[in-house]
Design a protein that fits this description.
Elements: E1 3-7, E2 10-11, E3 14-15, H1 19-26, E4 32-37, H2 42-51, E5 56-61, H3 71-85, E6 89-93, H4 96-109, E7 113-121, E8 126-131, E9 136-141, E10 147-151, E11 166-171, E12 199-203, H5 213-223, E13 226-229, H6 231-235, E14 256-260, H7 266-272, E15 277-282, H8 288-291, E16 295-298, H9 301-315
Parallel strand pairs: 1-4, 1-6, 4-5, 5-11, 6-10, 7-10, 12-13, 12-14, 14-15, 15-16
Antiparallel strand pairs: 2-3, 7-8, 8-9
Helix pairs in contact: 3-4, 5-9
The structure holds flavin-adenine dinucleotide.
Flavin-adenine dinucleotide binds near residues 249, 265, 282 and 302.
Length: about 325
């Protein structure tokens, strides 16, 4: 029975929403699933983790208590837990946190790691990921005693598979090494990191300046969305690079992507083409984004977005 680990990412005492899809991806007919929790709240997550098929929850801590966020100590602790519990594979998220932790684990274990996976076959040890800015996909074969997979957030639909989970405490004898976390600073963009967001509303050149992004933030607040941007808006200095979607920005896969005043260049599409539903708001009905969206609204975003916000507020009962 293959023992498969899942690095459970949490934020402020909650499991990140994209994790349920990752657990779903890690499941298999005879897999024993281990959820590795590092924030000291394993018991709080039991109901949710067992609802998605986690059999054993490993409460990873140091001998003196929970491990504070530090990618170096977390990676060493997870690598030790993988050896202790005989985990042959580890799944995680291709998120800001996953990008810090998973490569470090791979280096410690000398294990192959594939990030931004769209699909994984644990038995065949293969994983599919997009190539050449999303123009094609490739299937990669991994060889090694342990295989590591970083899943693209939101690509796998989360399907419940209730089971009964048991909690194991694991004290990893790790101490802070060369890397010390002194402070955590929230990005100016706030909200959920774009790569994990379930809804994104993005603005392009048509936004004209940084102040105008306020109308997107207002809409995002009602929708519980994160705000993104095209490269033009970033290069112009209107918004930070952390908000850029595309080939040289972030790859996102939200359930809903609303592109406001974005033409639909190949480089922008490279970062958001796997979105569930794409809505385009553009004055030019012939814009590429309008041709390749699920719903296109031909109009001025400065008129359309405030109406959308008002209507959503009313229908979602926000005021
Ligand atoms: C190597 C390389 C990497 C790149 N990486 C990225 C990347 O990661 N991400 C990225 O986004 N780009 C990237 N680019 C840039 C990319 O080629 C495009 O230049 C860019 O995506 C265009 O941004 P845009 O759609 O905001 O602007 P434009 O192409 O100028 O489009 C603006 C759109 O707004 C519409 N519009 C105008 N006024 C309004 C209005 N009032 N209401 C509604 N619609 C309106 C117009 O009809 C038009 O369709 C890269 C380019 C290169 C060469």
């Amino acid at each position: 029975m293959p023992r498969i680990g899942v690095f459970i990412e949490t934020r402020e005492g909650r499991i990140k929403p994209a994790m349920s899809g990752v657990i779903t991806a890690a499941r298999g007919p005879n897999h024993e699933l281990y959820g590795l929790v590092l924030d000291g709240r394993a018991a709080d997550y039991k109901a949710q983790l067992q609802a998605f098929g986690i059999h054993r929850i490993v409460d990873v801590a140091s001998p003196t208590g929970p491990l504070g966020w530090n990618p170096d100590t977390w990676a060493r602790a997870i690598a030790l837990a993988m050896r202790e519990f005989g985990l042959e594979a580890l799944f995680g998220l291709t998120s800001a946190m996953g990008k810090e932790v998973l490569p470090r684990i791979a280096a410690i274990l000398d294990a192959p790691l594939l990030m931004d996976c769209l699909r994984v076959d644990v038995e065949k040890r293969t994983a599919e990921k997009s190539q050449f800015s999303g123009k094609t996909t490739g299937v990669f074969k991994l060889n090694g005693a342990h295989c590591l997979y970083g899943m693209r957030p939101n690509v796998i639909e989360a399907i419940p598979a209730p089971t009964e989970a048991k909690i194991d405490a694991f004290q990893a004898p790790v101490t802070e090494g060369a890397l010390i976390v002194e402070a955590l600073r929230l990005e100016a963009s706030r909200g959920v990191d774009l790569t994990e967001a379930e809804i994104i509303i993005s603005g392009g050149r048509a936004m004209q300046n940084g102040d105008n992004f306020r109308i997107l933030r207002e809409c995002a607040e009602v929708l519980g969305a994160s705000v993104g941007a095209s490269r033009v808006a970033v290069d112009a200095g209107w918004v930070p690079h952390s908000m850029q979607v595309g080939q040289t920005g972030k790859t996102v896969s939200p359930k809903l992507y609303i592109a406001c005043g974005i033409s639909g260049s190949v480089q922008h599409f490279a970062g958001m083409k796997t979105s569930g539903v794409i809505v385009a708001i553009n004055t030019d009905p012939k814009a590429v984004m309008m041709q390749h969206c699920d719903y296109g609204i031909a109009g001025d975003l400065f008129e359309v977005v405030p109406i959308l916000t008002r209507q959503l507020k009313a229908s979602l009962n926000h005021g």
